C-alpha cells in the first residue's frame, strides 16, 4: 500500500481523489446505452443483456415459479443467516417511523405531516462480479415498511439467494437486467418494464453514472452509491490484523474501490501494511483487491486534529474508528456515510446484518447525502386546517404579506372569507 508521510493540507485534494474511469468516455457510453433503451425498448434490453452479461434467454422477467423454487436451492444455514439479517434490518428501519404530530402553530391553525410510501420504486441489485443479495434486504425491507406498492427489482444475476431475498421481502417483479440499461429501463419504461418514480441501489460506475444522468430528466434517485470505499483511523490501540482485514473487505468489491488508512503512528501503519500483504494472498478475489489497493493510501499525519480534518474532507462511505477515544471522536465526524466504532465493529457487520443500511453515498457525496433509510422511500405530505377564529387571527398577517408582494388575488382569498 502506498504510504504518504505528513502531506501538507494543500496536497490533500489530489491525495484524496477517487479512482475513476475516464469521464467523457463513460458518460458517452452510458448515454449510448440510455438512448438505445429509449428507442428500442425490450429488444434493445435483450441485445444489451447478451452483449454485457452473456444472457441468451428470450424473456428478461424471472418467473414467479423460478422465484418460488429458489428456497429449495439454498442451504438451511444460509437461509437462517438471511433470516437473522432480515430481522435486524427490519428492527432498525422500523425504529425510524415517526408518529404523526398535529401542531397548533397559532390558535385555530393546525398543521401536520404524514409520510406516504412512493408508489412505484425500482431497486438495482449489483450482480456483475458478485451476487449482492444482501442489497435486496437493504432496499426492499424499507420499501415495504414505507408502503411502496410496486417494487421492481433489476439485476444482471439470477442467483437463487437474490430470488429468495426478493420473495422474503415481498418484491413485486424481478427482471434480469444489469448496468446502465437497467437504470434506463426503470427511468423510461419499456413494453414490459414499468417506469418507476424513484430508482434506488448501488452499482458500478456505469450504474452510478446512469442514475445521475436519468435523474436530470425527472426520475428521482436515492443518491450516487458507486464503488465501495472505507477509511480507517487507527491508533496504537488498534489491532493491525483487524485493520488490514477491514481494508481488504472493501478492496475486494471492485478494482475501482478505494481504501484509506489514517494514523498518527508510523509503526501502526507499517504493521498494517505487512498484515495486508499476508492476508491478500488468501483472498478469493485477490486480483480485484490488489487493483483496489493500488488506488489506495496509508497516510501518516502529525496529530488528531489533522486526522479529523482530513477524514471530514474525504467524506468516506464507511469510516472505522479503531482508536482509543472512538466515541468522543465520533461526535466530531461531520462527513461520512456510516461510522463503525472500536476494534470489534467490522464494517462487514454493517454490510450484512447489524441493522443499518449498506446503501451509502460514495465519492465524497457523504458531504451532502445520507445513506438509504425508511425516509428515502417516502414523501412527506403536509396538511393544515384553519378554523374561522383561526383565520380571524392569521388572515390579517397573510393580507399584509400578500399586499407587500403585490399579489392581490392572494390577499383576496383571505379577505373574502373575513368579510363573510
Ligand atoms: N455504495 C454502495 O452502497 C455499494 C453497495 C454495494 C456495492 N457497491 C458497488 O457496486 C459495484 C458492483 O459492481 P459490479 O460490476 O460487480 O456489478 P453491477 O451490477 O453494478 O454492474 C454490472 C453491470 O455493469 C455493466 N457493464 C459492465 N461492463 C460494462 C461496459 N464495459 N460497458 C457498459 N456496461 C458495462 C453490465 O451491464 C453489467 O450488468 C461495485 O463497484 C461495489 O463496490 C456499492
Ligand atoms: N460494502 C458494500 C457497500 O459499499 C455493501 C456490501 C454488500 N455485500 C457486501 N458488501
Ligand atoms: Zn461490502
Write up this protein.
- The chain is an alpha/beta fold.
- About 45% of the residues lie in helices and about 15% in strands.
- α5 (about 135-145) runs parallel beside α6, α7 (about 180-190) packs parallel to α8 (about 205-215) and α9 (about 240-250) packs across α10.
- The protein is globular, with a radius of gyration of 25 Å.
- The structure holds nicotinamide-adenine-dinucleotide, L-histidinol (HSO) and zinc ion.
- Zinc ion binds near residues 228, 250, 253 and 351.
Number of helices: 16
Secondary structure tally: strands: 15
Any idea how many domains? 3
Strand order of the largest sheet: 1-12-11-10-13-14
- CATH class placement of the largest domain: Alpha Beta
Instruction: Point out poorly predicted stretches.
Output: none
User: How does CATH name the architecture of the largest domain?
Assistant: 3-Layer(aba) Sandwich
Largest sheet descriptor: 6 strands, parallel
The fourth-level CATH homologous superfamily of the largest domain is Nitrogenase molybdenum iron protein domain
Mean pLDDT: 97
Query: Could you tell me which ligands this complex binds, including any ions or cofactors?
Result: nicotinamide-adenine-dinucleotide, L-histidinol, zinc ion
Q: Structural class, from helix and strand content?
A: alpha/beta
Termini Cα gap: 78 Å
The general outline is globular
Instruction: Note the beta-strand portion.
Output: 15-25%
Q: Over all CA atoms, what is the radius of gyration?
A: 25 Å
Amino acid at each position: 500500500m502506498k504510504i504518504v508521510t505528513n502531506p501538507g493540507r494543500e496536497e490533500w485534494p489530489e491525495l484524496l481523489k477517487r479512482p475513476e474511469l475516464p469521464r467523457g468516455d463513460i458518460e458517452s457510453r452510458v448515454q449510448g446505452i440510455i438512448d438505445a433503451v429509449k428507442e428500442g425498448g425490450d429488444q434493445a434490453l435483450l441485445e444489451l443483456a447478451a452483449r454485457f452479461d452473456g444472457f441468451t434467454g428470450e424473456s428478461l422477467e424471472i418467473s414467479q415459479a423460478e422465484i418460488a423454487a429458489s428456497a429449495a436451492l439454498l442451504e438451511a444455514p444460509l437461509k437462517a443467516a438471511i433470516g437473522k439479517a432480515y430481522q435486524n434490518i427490519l428492527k432498525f428501519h422500523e425504529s425510524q417511523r415517526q408518529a404523526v404530530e398535529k401542531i397548533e402553530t397559532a390558535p385555530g391553525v393546525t398543521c401536520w405531516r404524514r409520510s406516504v410510501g412512493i408508489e412505484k420504486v425500482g431497486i438495482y441489485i449489483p450482480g456483475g462480479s458478485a451476487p449482492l443479495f444482501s442489497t435486496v434486504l437493504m432496499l426492499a425491507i424499507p420499501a415495504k415498511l414505507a408502503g411502496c406498492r410496486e417494487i421492481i427489482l433489476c439485476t444482471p444475476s439470477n442467483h437463487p439467494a437474490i430470488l429468495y431475498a426478493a420473495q422474503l421481502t415481498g418484491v413485486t417483479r424481478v427482471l434480469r437486467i444489469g448496468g446502465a440499461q437497467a437504470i434506463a429501463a426503470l427511468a423510461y419504461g419499456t413494453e414490459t418494464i414499468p417506469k418507476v418514480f424513484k430508482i434506488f441501489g448501488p452499482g458500478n460506475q456505469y450504474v452510478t453514472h446512469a442514475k445521475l444522468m436519468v435523474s436530470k430528466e425527472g426520475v428521482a434517485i436515492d443518491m450516487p452509491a458507486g464503488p465501495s470505499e472505507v477509511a480507517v483511523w487507527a491508533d496504537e490501540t488498534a489491532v493491525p490484523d483487524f485493520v488490514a482485514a477491514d481494508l481488504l473487505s472493501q478492496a475486494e468489491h471492485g478494482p475501482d474501490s478505494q481504501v484509506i488508512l489514517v494514523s498518527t503512528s508510523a509503526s501502526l501503519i507499517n504493521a498494517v501494511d505487512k498484515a495486508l500483504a499476508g492476508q491478500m494472498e488468501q483472498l478469493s478475489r485477490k486480483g480485484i483487491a490488489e487493483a483496489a489497493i493500488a488506488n489506495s493510501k496509508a497516510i501518516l499525519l502529525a496529530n488528531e486534529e489533522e486526522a479529523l480534518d482530513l477524514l471530514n474532507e474525504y467524506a468516506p462511505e464507511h469510516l472505522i474508528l479503531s482508536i482509543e477515544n472512538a466515541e468522543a471522536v465520533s461526535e466530531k465526524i461531520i462527513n461520512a456515510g456510516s461510522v463503525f466504532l472500536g476494534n470489534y465493529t467490522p464494517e462487514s457487520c454493517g454490510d450484512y446484518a447489524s441493522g443499518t443500511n449498506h446503501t451509502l453515498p460514495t465519492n465524497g457525496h457523504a458531504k451532502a447525502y445520507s445513506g438509504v433509510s425508511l425516509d428515502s422511500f417516502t414523501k412527506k405530505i403536509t396538511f393544515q386546517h384553519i378554523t374561522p377564529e383561526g383565520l380571524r387571527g392569521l388572515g390579517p398577517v397573510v393580507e399584509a404579506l400578500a399586499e407587500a408582494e403585490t399579489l392581490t388575488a392572494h390577499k383576496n382569498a383571505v379577505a373574502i372569507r373575513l368579510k363573510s
